[in-house]
Design a protein that fits this description.
The protein is an all-alpha fold. Helix 3 packs antiparallel against helix 6, helix 3 packs across helix 8 and helix 7 packs across helix 8. The longest helix has about 40 residues. It starts with a helix and ends in a 15-residue tail after the last helix.
């Protein structure tokens, strides 16, 4: 939580003072700069990776919306009280790796058990399992593929390998790093690639 707050604060400062930050960074590429060569070599690639991370954020936001929609539908079908409030919690917890599922599911389980008993509790767990299976095996590869122009199979492989090697906390960067490696590091072209908008 502390790291999240620090990240949000740092991001807010950068956005608020974007013009000054941009101007300061561009000074590194001027003729009198001793790091001019490195700047012109690295700046386009760093900028491209930044756009990849931005697209990844868009994808995660869209996944969170779909996850919330599916969970809300399930809660209403199961007639769980306070479904709207629980759904808001689900939305925000969608941005928290692993722990978010536990945090968002626990209140649902408590309400289901206290109001209806063990059968309803089992139905809630089953609903959450189905929703997250849809998210993991359909929504994640499909949405990330659309936003970052990477084949859905490669998206699944990137997420799987990253989870095994680094852990769930790094899953957010799995797809952007994979796209960066394929399009920049492994590319034979000198020009920095761009991300095209998906076809309508």
């Amino acid at each position: 939580f502390y790291q999240l707050m620090v990240s949000l604060l740092f991001s807010s400062i950068c956005i608020y003072d974007k013009a000054a930050v941009t101007k300061g960074v561009q000074l590194l590429g001027q003729d009198h700069s001793i790091v001019r060569g490195a700047y012109h070599e690295l700046a386009p690639r760093i900028s491209f990776f930044g756009r990849l991370v931005g697209k990844s954020l868009e994808a995660q936001l869209l996944i969170a919306v779909w996850n919330t929609f599916l969970t809300t539908t399930g809660l209403f079908l199961l007639r769980i009280p306070a479904a709207a409030a629980l759904s808001i919690l689900v939305f925000f917890c969608s941005f928290i790796p692993l722990a978010g599922v536990i945090i968002s599911t626990l209140p649902m389980a408590i309400v289901a058990l206290s109001e209806y008993g063990l059968l309803k509790l089992f139905q809630v767990f089953l609903m959450v399992f189905v929703v997250h299976a849809i998210e993991a095996y359909f929504l994640n590869p499909k949405i990330y593929s659309s936003k970052l122009q990477l084949h859905p199979l490669l998206v699944l492989i990137a997420l799987y390998v990253t989870e095994k090697l680094v852990g769930v906390t790094a899953l957010f960067l799995a797809v952007p790093v994979t796209v960066f490696i394929i399009k920049v590091i492994l590319s034979d072209t000198e020009a920095t690639p761009t991300i095209q908008p998906p076809d309508a």
